[in-house]
Amino acid sequence: MSAHTKTVEQRQTLYSAKVIAESSNPSNRGRIPDSDAYGIIHGCYGDTMEIYLLGMVMMTRIEGEDTVFVHASDIQLLNSEAVSLILAWRPDILLVCGPPLYLSWLSSKRRRGAWRNARQLDRHMGTLILDHHLLRCEEGLSWLDRLSSETGHRVICAADFMGRPRCLLEARREQLYAEMPVLKGWHAAYARGDADTYRYPDCVSVEGVT
User: What is the DSSP string of 26-75?
Assistant: First the structure.
């Protein structure tokens, strides 16, 4: 049996006919300029997928005895309706996804809007944690630090909140692959559970590899 035939049979075992058909001839491909969210997935063999989303993401509000925590995933500080709902929930601690500054479609207008939304949230939060898309590039770190400075250091990232070093693994992807190259076939082995990450350093500091 050829490798191609084996791969086809494995796909048929794992996925439905509809999924296989869509993967071969996608009917919903193309860019959405005014999408509510955007993401990039890097495959283990160098392939890249762009995802545009229209619709809503779920936010979570957790109320304890004396603290309200809200997690607002993937709103990217670009959705004013989501910001208004967060303010109505009156959280003490807010963890929110910052804007994806590394993406070319993020216009200056949207950047200014994200900044205004961050300032508005900060005025009503005890602790504002910005992370996720914001820290996928070095510019995002500068954006965070400038915002923190202007708000009396009440705006922090998740690592700051946990008292851990800032590890910008995504922002330093090319640097890290150059300094810590993986063996040929490692990604496939990791996907199968036959490899681990123990041989690599735990973290990257602001200055570089620790």
Answer: -SS-S--TT-SEEEEEE-TTS-EEEEEE-S---EEEEE-SS-EEEEETT-
For 44, how many CA atoms within 13 A lie in the half-sphere containing its CB?
Answer: 11
pLDDT single digits (tens) 49-64: 677 666 667 889 999 8
* pLDDT at position 210 over 50: no
Give the tens place of pLDDT for each residue, 90-112.
999 999 999 999 988 889 999 99
Amino acid, res. 124 = H
Distance CA 130, CA 153 (A): 12
Close Cβ partners of 141 (under 8 Å, ≥ 6 residues apart):
135, 166, 168, 171, 206
Determine contact, residues 126/153, Cβ cutoff 8 Å.
no
CA 28 to chain centre: 23
Position 204 scores a pLDDT of 43
